[in-house]
Design goal:
Elements lengths: L1 H5 L5 H10 L9 H8 L7 H14 L2 H11 L3 H8 L9 H9 L3
Helix pairs in contact: 2-4, 2-5
């Protein structure tokens, strides 16, 4: 915890996304784990990861996702590849809309 507080502006968007995607969960998934899922270093496991990813796409607004991508060196294609594995439901509406309108 002290390490996080001593570097308050490091990975700001990544830490914000981590907090937002974990709101509904008792266990915390780190942004490092999320990055590994997007980069396919960890295989997507629907049972373990679905809730966190739905939280990510629901709670993180588009400009924050762009900052997260920049901080973690994640491409648009890597984000979309994982997004397409998710069910089409309410949590994905805003991101799906951004894809449709070209704002992502």
């Amino acid at each position: 915890m002290l390490q996080v507080l001593s570097k308050p502006y490091t990975n700001r968007a990544s830490r914000a996304c981590q907090g937002l995607m974990n709101i509904r969960h008792g266990e915390v998934m780190s942004y490092q784990t999320l990055t590994k899922i997007f980069k396919k270093e960890i295989p997507y496991d629907r049972a373990k990861h679905l809730g966190y990813l739905l939280g990510f796409f629901d709670a993180c607004y588009i400009s924050l996702i762009h900052e997260f991508m920049q901080e973690q060196n994640i491409s648009k294609e890597e984000i979309i590849d994982i997004f397409q594995l998710l069910p089409e439901q309410g949590e994905t509406y805003q991101f799906r809309r951004a894809l449709h309108h070209g704002t992502f």
